[in-house]
Design a protein that fits this description.
Blueprint: H1 2-17, H2 22-31, H3 35-63
Helix pairs in contact: 1-2, 1-3, 2-3
Length: 78
């Protein structure tokens, strides 16, 4: 969850006081009423959040291999 929140935090920080970045790009696209451009930036942010989450999960599994899996990742055999 931290990976997804870090992406959101970075974009909000860029909304407030940045000169460049994806948050600024969203604000520029919204000011120009460019819905497709704004949506494209949101897709990039979504992919970035998913990739960061997957990378952190892979690192966790590699470093903490001795830990049992979470309940949501266990398989049930019938």
């Amino acid at each position: 969850m931290a990976a997804a929140f870090s992406v959101v935090g970075a974009v909000v920080g860029e909304f407030v006081g940045a000169q460049a970045g994806l948050g600024v790009l969203i604000l520029q696209r919204e000011a120009q009423l460019d819905t497709a451009g704004s949506f494209a930036v949101f897709v990039v942010l979504s992919v970035l959040g998913i990739a960061l989450t997957a990378a952190l999960r892979a690192v966790r599994n590699r470093v903490l291999g001795w830990m049992p899996l979470e309940e949501s990742h266990k398989t049930v055999s019938a």
